[in-house]
Structures are given as C-alpha cells and as structure tokens.
Amino acid sequence: MCRVPPRLLVVEDDDHIRTALRWALEDEGYLVEEAVDGEDAVRRVAVAVPDLMLVDLMLGAMDGFAVIREVRRDHDLPIIVVSARADTHDIVAALEAGADDYVTKPFQLKEVTARLRALRRRVSSGAPRPGAAENATPEVVLDAHATAPLVLRQERGTVHRGEEQLALTLTEFRLLCELASVPGRVLSRQELLSRVWEHGFFGDERIVDVHVRRLRTKIELDAGNPQVVVTVRGLGYRLDLQ
Prior knowledge:
The protein is α/β, with parallel strands linked by helices. It is built from eight helices and twelve strands. The protein has helices at 15-27, 38-47, 64-72, 88-97, 109-125, 170-181, 189-197, 205-219; strands at residues 7-11, 31-35, 52-55, 79-83, 101-104, 139-143, 150-153, 158-161, 164-165, 186-187, 229-232, 236-239. The chain has a five-stranded parallel β-sheet with strand order 2-1-3-4-5, sandwiched between helices. The relative contact order is 0.11.
C-alpha cells in the first residue's frame, strides 16, 4: 500500500518565505498547503484538518496568536510558530496560546524540518518515547485525592481528575509521562527538552517553563500552589506523588 504523505499547512504572508518552505517541505515528503493570512488558515482547517501547521505571527487582521487559539479550540494537531518576533513575551504568548514549538526568523530550513520530524515522531509513537517512560506502569495515581484522584493511563493516552478526562495536548501529556516515569527525581529543563521535544541541542528552555505552566492549570487542584509538578529552583522540575 502507498503511504499517504502528511498534510502540512504553512500559514505565512510573505510569498518568498512561503515558497521556500513549500519547496523544502515537499522535498521532505509533506503534502504542503498554503494560507496567506489568518482567516484563510482558519477556513482551510475547518474544511480539512491538516496533520501539522507552521504559523507566522504577523499575519494582518487575524494574527498568528488568534489562529492558534482558534485551532486549539477543537484540534490537537502539532503547531510550530515561525516568526521574526524573538522577544520573550511573544514566545511565551505563542506557547500559551497553544503552540508546541517556536522558531525565530531568520531560520535554517534544516532546523524547521528537524523540529517537524521530532513532532511527527512524538505523534506516531504516541505518549511514551523510547526509553524510561515507555516502561512505566500503565496506570499511575499521581494524586490520591479522596474525591478527585489524578490518574495517568499512559497506554490509553489519558489523564483523569476524578471522572473528568483532562484535555491535555500531546506535548503536555508527554511532559507528564516523562516526569511520572521518575517520580521524586528532578529533571532539568535540558533533560526535558531532550526527552519530550527531542531536539534539546537547539531548543529553548522557555518552552519547558510555559508547557509546565499550562500543564499545571489542567492537573493541579491549585495551579498557583502546585503539589504534583513542583519547581526545584535552579535545577528543574520534579513530580511528587500525592
């Protein structure tokens, strides 16, 4: 049987950058579609959901932040931001909107394709990476709360707080799995980049902090006073079973 190439939507208003990305990504085996602005991107996703997205932030009336939030309302596809805006505030805002990764312009095409390959591996392999997390217990009680226990079911790809299944993104789920694979042990940001994002050699540690913050808003009873995923100042993060 012929393999269906992954569909990738490039959302970019610069014709030259969009064309360069299309050529490079088609060489990598992607079926590339293009959107020239935010409204066009949202329309295309509504018609046919792509497998992955590359999104610029400066798109006109409907910027990249709005596109990501709109897509994230109903879909969990991997999204990478490719933008000239390198300010920490912009990077954090994009990740908090729901992006999985962030590449700043000017960029090397091989960096973009490497990050896309890493995202595809995470999607195709499911929650665990080859390594520690894949050997974890299928069901782990992270917080034995009397009425609303927090339960990670890795083989099913789910996390429940009581009867409610929590809507974690793939990145958030893998982050939780990695921390849960070594409860009580501190994992540095670089370790988490390598384990979860698989490109720690050029990843930005701020990505880890933002995703931890997003994860806490979903799994902690009090995100302002986290008990499950705790910060170890100067070292990284640790998962404490409750």
